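Page 47, continued from p. 46.
Same chain as before, 161 aa.
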Amino acid sequence: MAFERIFGIQKIGAEKQAKSQSTGMTLTKKIITTKNAPRHNAPFSQGVVLDTTLYVSGVIGMDKDTMKLVDGDFSAEVRQTLRNLGAILQAANSSYEKVVKVTVFLSDLNDFVALNNVYKEFFTKDFPARSAFQVSKLPMNARVEIEAVAATGNMKTICCH
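Result:
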């Protein structure tokens, strides 16, 4: 509740506005929900936009219709995970090109090369910053989970090559 002490929060439909007492700046918080990616009964949102920044919760390679992990090898699971991520990005008026940070959780770091091969099908240039970690267990015994931070709306990429 510290956030509520710092920011006065008013609920506006699915959006919440927070007004900073120190700067007078109004922030808009929007909860992102889409039927095009698996939705859980767990207490978290698929994504949250704060002003123009989208925070995507961890997604796994679950089929939205069966609510089970996709059949196939590790690459198939990564591919479905990234499709689910794409559905949430799209619901928030974002895209793979607007992703600025990705965190990858792997059940086996030896799958890192296979991850990269599929990852490059979705992120083709000007790659986002990324971290990858091996973890002992993921939901539903998934082999990969990915969370992301992305811009929404208009964005210009400037490269320093």
